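Chapter review: from sequence to fold.
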Amino acid sequence: MKTLNIIIYCMAFTAFVALPFLIVNWIRFMVERASKGKQLAKFPYKSVGFFIVSIIVAVILVQVSASLAREKALNYLNRLSGDYKLKINDQSVPENEYSQIIPALSSIADQLAHHSHTTTRIRVEIESGNRVLRLELGRDSDRPQEYWVFYPDYGVTSDNEIGRITTHAFDKYK
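The token string follows.
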């Protein structure tokens, strides 16, 4: 995941660096096209290619990263057994609430986006032995029982959702 994070940031940087070259070469292309005619103007393949390829690779890797983080979180949740501790917003949760919260978190799935955004972020930490799972849930602005799930251990997945859940289990947390 760290390697994916680095590659994604490199692709974003490459696109950022390629953008001025694309703009300059596109302007040259348009000027040549206007003065010399359509047949004689050379299309800026390299500039367009570097920009578009780096953007496409970054978008694909963000999706792969989210998928891997979701799988990692679901594997952790499915392997929970026996003694573990659950904290929400750095506060211990009573064990009688575990039966509602853990199944809700285990239902993380990739869902189609709708035109909304997150409001309140809720930090969830599950500690089992020497392993810890940290997630952040962003309450949806239109659907209060829908939460966007983020995996804060990596830069890309801390800003891009790894999935969503729909539950009433977190209604009392703000």
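Two observations follow directly from the output. The two ends are 30 Å apart (CA to CA). The chain has four helices and six strands.
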